[in-house]
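hey m, so remember when u said the tokens were messed up on ur end? i reran from scratch. heres the input so u can diff it against urs
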Amino acid sequence: MARVWSEENKFAAWLRVEVAVVQAWAELGAVPREAAEKIARGASFRIEDIERYEREMHHDMNSFLRSVSDSLGEESRWLHLGLTSYDTEDPALALRLVQAAEIIEEDLRAFDAAIAARALEHKDTLCMGRTHGMHAEPITFGLKLLNWLDEVRRAQERLARAKRDVAVGKLSGPVGSHATVPPELEERVCARLGLGVDAVSTQVVSRDRHAHFVQTLALIGASLERFATEIRHLQRTEVGEAEEPFSAGQVDLHLRPLDADQPVIRHQQGSSSMPHKRNPEKCERVCGLARLLRGYSVAALENVALWHERDISQSSVERVIIPDACLALDYMLALFTQIVRGLVVYPERMRENMELTRGVVFSQRLLLALIEKGMSRQEAYPVVQRAGHAALAERRPFRETIAVEPEVAKRLPAANLDALFDYAYFTREVDKSFARMGLLNP
């Protein structure tokens, strides 16, 4: 990703556009074919020369064109024929956005595979489902991860749409009128570059396209923040159901002491003062970077409103937010994929936590059973609620407090009551969700 947004790649993309333009002009008969061929064969640039010229000229495009002209002869006069700066810059930006999107697509595929594998691994691992931070009803840890997978697949679809949206070029002159650059040339150049054509542009491709792209990256970041926040909650001492990988005492195959052949043992440290700490610092890092991406999405929205046929207010912003957003998300996806692959899961602690509320998680089952036995919902609800609150307040099993309720004892014999306290009831449909996601046969 760093290579995509390097100065070298930026100027290489500019040169690619300029060469495509000369070749298209030659096809239309406006530039000698021999000159176009010489430019295609010999045009190059030197970054150090561009930087030197820019200190003198204070214009990056003219500095670039001057450096390219240095590599050519008399044929250099055909460079940039009829163009304004953004006739080169916008198609070149589109090329780099496509390159960046392809890297993020690859990241998402790897992330998808990591989540799918762990979801299947824990398809039947029983854990507590929580709403409002409180115990609700049991689910499986695999189902929790499957929900993440579904969100990641939506992210892949959104990114594909956003990539299509920015994969367009424009070569329509200073105000979009095509006065010096006919539409036929624009179409030929964009076809050569593998880009679509912005049907009606100003001096620039309208920035709603770029805002859509950056917002898509920010939305993927928001999903990662949701997943990371879940792990942070589960890693809390009081919960202890899962934690991000921690490398204490692990062999690092990439590091070796200078004076020995023995591998280095890495001892990750979680605190400068408390050696016992294993903090969810990687997940916290993901959450922090997601905030940065959201800020970039706001800046991208601000770039949409330009004066008339274009001002330059968006340029300085894009030079920061677009590369940074791509780099940040690439890093976040790589990091969180490793977190998922190495996630440590504690099924025994999950089971212990399920028992903390002494069975009140079966309250809906009792409610439904009483309704099936003839009570109205309005009658049954306070009965079950009273028994549930008593179990929590008196630290007694819910099975005991519900059994002494007269309306329950009258309608549900002991054997029927026992059958309701079965965790398997809550997970009997889980396989169908996995089948929906294509991880199991229906």
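this time it looks ok to me. The first strand starts at residue 126 and ends at 131. if urs says something different then somethings off w ur setup not the seq
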